[in-house]
Design goal:
Order of helices and strands: EEHHHEHEEHEHHHHEEH
Largest sheet: 2 strands, antiparallel
Number of strands: 8
Shape: globular
Number of helices: 10
Oligomer: single chain
Strand content: 5-15%
């Protein structure tokens, strides 16, 4: 994500950008400003930024001729955006509504070994519980959504893509190179999801049973607290068996 003469930011993490909301320009990264006291002040100010200005910022990067506008952590809420809430940049492309749709991702505990960064066990459990709460909110607000586990994305990506297209009611879309196996080195970050899954056996790399979608004893070894284990299994069971009403 980079406008001419600006600081590059990963497109999948727009919340990593520090934005001048007057000029709608990226002026720094979150990592740079976290070292400064003014970053906390910036966070508070960002919460009050009008939605129209946020949409105008993203209009600089989105291809508004496309039927899907992807964003991760962009804070646009769960309500349909239409009418006067839409900036002119959208209207001139014939867009009359922005309908929210969520892909809720979760990770089985033993697949933490695939991550570049590790976290505390309790944080892992809390993340899953937050996903459960989010799904309840999305259901109550009738927001289009789907749940995808990292195991599905890694070892069954074509099925995941089909489910996403079904949820979006766009069955005619074609899979792109993100799911095409490529010969690269063994690190996950240097490969597509599809190629990584083809090269790594889930049982060998992570003690994960792909059939039952569950972690074995070795994969759960770090989960030593009975209370955390109980909380984890409850959230995991909910997420693993969840089926969105928006999937055909």
């Amino acid at each position: 994500m980079k406008a001419p003469g600006e600081i590059p930011i990963w497109q999948c993490e727009p919340n990593a950008a520090v934005i001048n909301w007057e000029t709608l320009k990226i002026i720094a990264t979150r990592i740079e400003w976290k070292k400064r006291k003014k970053y906390r002040k910036y966070q508070k100010q960002t919460k009050d930024v009008p939605q129209r200005r946020v949409l105008r910022f993203f209009a600089q990067f989105w291809n508004l001729s496309k039927p899907i506008l992807f964003c991760k952590f962009c804070g646009l809420g769960t309500a349909v955006i239409e009418g006067d809430a839409l900036p002119d940049e959208y209207k001139i492309h014939g867009i009359t509504q922005l309908i929210p749709a969520r892909i809720v991702m979760w990770r089985p505990f033993c697949l933490e070994t695939l991550a570049n960064e590790r976290s505390f066990v309790e944080n892992e459990v809390k993340r899953l519980e937050e996903k459960v709460k989010l799904l309840n909110t999305l259901t109550q607000n009738d927001v289009r959504h789907i749940v995808v586990g990292l195991d599905e994305l890694t070892w069954n990506p074509f099925s995941v893509a089909s489910r996403i297209f079904s949820m979006l009611n766009l069955p005619g879309l074609v899979l792109d190179s993100a799911f095409t196996p490529k010969e690269k080195d063994s690190k996950q970050k240097n490969q597509t999801i599809g190629s990584f899954g083809l090269k790594h056996d889930p049982k060998e790399c992570c003690d994960f049973n792909i059939t039952t979608r569950s972690c074995g004893r070795r994969g759960m070894a770090k989960m030593r607290s009975p209370l955390l284990t109980k909380r984890y299994l409850k959230a995991e069971s909910f997420l693993r068996s969840y089926h969105s009403s928006f999937e055909i």
